[in-house]
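Archive maintenance. Older records in this collection stored only the sequence; we are now back-filling the structure field for every entry so that each record is complete. The fields below show one back-filled record exactly as it appears after the update. Entries are processed alphabetically, and RNA-binding region-containing protein 3 is next in the queue.

ARCHIVE ENTRY
Title: RNA-binding region-containing protein 3
Organism field: Onychorhynchus coronatus
Length field: 212
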Amino acid sequence: DVFEQPQHVGHKKIEFHISTDIPAVLQINSEKEEKNGKTSYFKYLSATTEEINNTGFGRIFPAPSSNDKMETEEEDDEIPSEFISRKDLEKNRLSREEMEKFSVFKNYEPGDPNCRIYVKNLAKQVQEKDLKFIFGRYVDFQSEVERNMFDIRLMKEGRMKGQAFIGLPNEKAAAKALKEANGYVLFEKPMVVQFARSARPKQDASEGKRKK
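Back-filled structure field:
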């Protein structure tokens, strides 16, 4: 008797009545959010368009500038970096007028084009690494053939002291080396660069004598 006895209750139906009408307050808020969203989106668009106009897509995919294009064009000349650059060659090379003042350039003739060059008037301090630093720029060291053809013979004693013979991969490379390195001042002495005299005619002549 202390506790109330539960009364039997029949099944009750629970119904939810959801109205499709949005309350005025919620509608206003949603409209504000939509407007804010649109304005912020337009702000973003305008900001990005200004950024594109000002900088392009430089931050994502940098487009090569004119300087970059020039560097890529000169890439063949400047790589590998352990060799002298064309700018340094031009900077320290004598002009034709200046060459005429030196007796070593009197009656200068480049000689017959071939893949070997002859260098004279070298200073005492010059070593093979100095010549490699200059003439190595005309060799493609990624090519095993060109690497093997590149040869430096520096004369340090006797009558040939201060002279060198340099073998390059081909006649074109040798011609370019002669054009750019002739008159280059190395250790305060201008180099005289010529095509080396080929010994082939003499060999042919000696072979002809042997056949007779």
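Update note: The two ends are 150 Å apart (CA to CA). The first helix runs from residue 24 to 55.
Entry marked complete.
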